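Per your request, structure below.
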């Protein structure tokens, strides 16, 4: 029994560790999408934040400076998304895809130009990283893992039980009613996007300052898209999205531990194991996206009547 317990605990700890950036992105996306703005650009904001965090930490030697830089660049990209979709009524999906392409290209260009290491930043020392904390319960996880768990409670409380949350939900369900009450729909949506920027900025910083010791090319590896899938699977609710992120994290943690194992004497291909979380994403979206009811006004630009 003790051997089984000893085998399960590392998998559970790995689940939380792997799921942390997904949780942060999903909670950020929830703010954005519940306000009525589709946010396909979660991936790009997280990737840009990962590079900015690693670059700032390498320059200053401070993990906190890196985290601040990651949040700042993610909020900047969130503002660009808002400018394109809220102010100028552009297509929200196209804007999100453009942010992803922009982040992928610029991070590669800057990393190559500044460091000449094939798209990587220099390895970070311990002072420039968020190392595991000696806290009970999660086998010494990084501080940012605890921040990700706290983000779920914060999102639940803010979206469901505050005045701002009520206005946020109204902006995504009935923006006309919100405007009739004298509250700016545009400003409400901008604030939601900025909250999304903060969460995705922390997620990106986690990738390069906690989970790894620097930035590498395309290190987000589609996790922004998985977070978006978790958000949809969770029906745009904090609890549901959190559970979906843990499911993806569990699969990823199991996949890591299954590398190199054999079934009936046949080695399981590493590529197949690594693809499991993405296969699950497709299956869940194919099976559940039709049952998830999105906010009524999501994807629809709001034009104030004069």
């Amino acid at each position: 029994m003790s051997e089984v317990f000893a085998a399960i605990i590392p998998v559970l700890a790995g689940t939380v560790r792997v799921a942390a950036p997904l949780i942060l992105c999903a909670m950020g996306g929830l703010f954005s999408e519940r306000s009525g703005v589709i946010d396909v650009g979660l991936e790009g904001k997280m990737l840009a934040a990962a590079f900015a965090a690693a670059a700032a930490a390498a320059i200053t030697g401070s993990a906190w400076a890196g985290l601040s830089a990651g949040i700042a660049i993610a909020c900047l990209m969130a503002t660009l998304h808002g400018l394109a979709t809220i102010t100028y009524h552009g297509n929200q999906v196209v804007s999100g895809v453009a942010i992803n392409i922009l982040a992928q290209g610029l991070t590669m260009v800057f990393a190559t130009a500044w460091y000449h290491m094939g798209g990587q930043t220099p390895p970070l020392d311990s002072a420039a990283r968020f190392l595991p904390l000696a806290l009970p319960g999660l086998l010494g996880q990084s501080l940012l893992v605890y921040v990700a768990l706290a983000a779920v409670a914060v999102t639940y409380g803010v979206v469901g039980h505050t005045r701002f949350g009520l206005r946020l939900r109204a902006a995504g369900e009935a923006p006309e009613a919100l405007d009739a009450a004298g509250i700016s729909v545009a400003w409400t949506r901008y604030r939601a996007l900025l909250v999304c920027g903060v969460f995705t900025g922390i997620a990106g910083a986690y990738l390069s300052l906690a989970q790894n010791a620097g930035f590498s090319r395309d290190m987000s590896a589609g996790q922004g898209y998985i977070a978006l899938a978790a958000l949809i699977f969770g029906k745009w609710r904090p609890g549901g999205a959190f559970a979906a992120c843990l499911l993806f994290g569990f699969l990823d943690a199991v996949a890591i531990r299954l590398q190199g194992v054999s079934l009936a004497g046949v080695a399981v291909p590493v590529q197949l194991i690594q693809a499991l979380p993405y296969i699950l994403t497709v299956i869940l979206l194919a099976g559940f996206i039709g049952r998830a009811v999105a906010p009524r006004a999501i994807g629809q630009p709001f034009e104030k009547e004069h």
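The mean pLDDT is 88.

Regards,
D.
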